[in-house]
Structure prediction request, 166 residues.
Amino acid sequence: MPCPTLFKHIALLSVLTLTIAACQPVQEPQNIGETGKAVTIPAAIPLPEALPEGVELQFPYHFIKKENIIPASGPARLRYTVEYLSGSPDSIAKSLASSVKAAGFLKVSTRHLEDGRIHLIANKPGYGRLQAAIVPSSSQKLEHLQAAGTVSMGWPLHGAKAAAKH
Prediction:
């Protein structure tokens, strides 16, 4: 007949194992990459500050930097650069155009350049101009292993401060 103490130890060990397993972080979804190995694609992380007037990025991205641009003439601008982790320049431009339209920006236009870059411009009365450059990975060195390119977005700094107060 087995020892009752042995059963207690086994039960305690089982409870501890289950407790430790339950405390592990949830793994993010995985896709199969070009190498045939599972590759983790992280969910979008909110940018350090809100984008202009409720604009939301509807694609997975990796934040690179935030810059305050003070030109010799004209208003100061805020610029964010992110790496998009999936999609093409066309799909990113369409997603961004949809998002800025939903946020009330007007006259949204895109211009496709020969080197694969896409420039997007949108205006909003009382806010100013939002400009974005979508650049494919072939044109630059990227930080994130899964990055397919970059998006640099700029807008008036006064507009960003006004939006943060609301």
Observations:
- Strands lie at 30-32, 38-40, 61-69, 77-84, 106-112, 118-124, 128-136, 149-156.
- The first strand starts at residue 30 and ends at 32.
- The mean pLDDT is 76.
